[in-house]
Write a structure and sequence with these properties.
mainly alpha; Arc Repressor Mutant, subunit A; 10 helices; elongated
């Protein structure tokens, strides 16, 4: 087996075990058993458990972001408002728990948020989401609040408009009634949060227009 295949095998095994057991309860031995490799292989490719966990988190972030697919879906929409809704829909998709894949996604989201709020979190884990914000969200929010050109206002608007999905993540993890149970729930929740966020962006736009 090639080095790359072994590395991928370990990473996907680690992803599965971390998702199921969490970081603290997962051992390198668990990962080795799942991947059918020895400890030396894990050490060679990843160094230690923490670094392997970071790589797994990065893999999950890429899954959630799905930049290529999201780019295509957003590009297919005619208006900035519709593009923004597509983004919210994609972000909320990880909250769907009406099948096994959705339940797994929710577990991954929980671990990602735990790392994000950790005092010494690894910023590299979230690099792909930063790229998403730079490539898609910032230009989109800029368009939605135009003619405002103040970088600080646009930056704050990006944070405010996109943080509603993070808040919903937290609510769903704390209270199961907020978990998205089916495709209809996903669409209705997307519509509500999109309308709420667009209302705030419209207010910013109008306020800046009056200045």
């Amino acid at each position: 087996m090639s080095k790359e295949n072994t590395r991928d095998k370990i990473l996907f095994a680690a992803s599965s075990v971390f998702c199921e057991k969490g970081y603290e309860k997962t051992t390198i031995r668990d990962i080795c058993t799942t991947a059918d490799v020895n400890v030396a292989a894990v050490n060679y490719h990843f160094g230690d458990k923490q670094n392997l966990f970071y790589k797994a988190l990065g893999l999950w972030m890429e899954e959630f972001v799905e930049k290529a697919a999201l780019r295509q879906r957003m590009a297919s929409k005619d208006t900035p408002q519709a593009k923004f809704r597509e983004y919210i829909h994609a972000e909320l998709g990880a909250l769907c728990i009406y099948n096994e894949t959705g339940t797994t996604s929710l577990k991954k989201a929980r671990l990602i948020l735990q790392e994000l709020t950790a005092e010494n979190h690894n910023p590299e884990v979230f690099e792909c989401h930063k790229e998403l914000e730079k490539d898609f969200i910032y230009p989109l929010i800029t368009d939605l609040v135009s003619p405002c050109e103040d970088p600080e206002i646009i930056h704050n608007a990006c944070i405010a408009a996109t943080s509603i999905t993070t808040h919903y993540f937290l609510m769903a993890m704390d209270n199961p009634k907020f978990a998205i149970q089916n495709a209809e729930d996903l669409d209705s929740t997307t519509d509500f949060l999109t309308t709420f966020a667009l209302g705030g962006l419209k207010a910013i736009k109008e306020k800046q227009h009056d200045v």
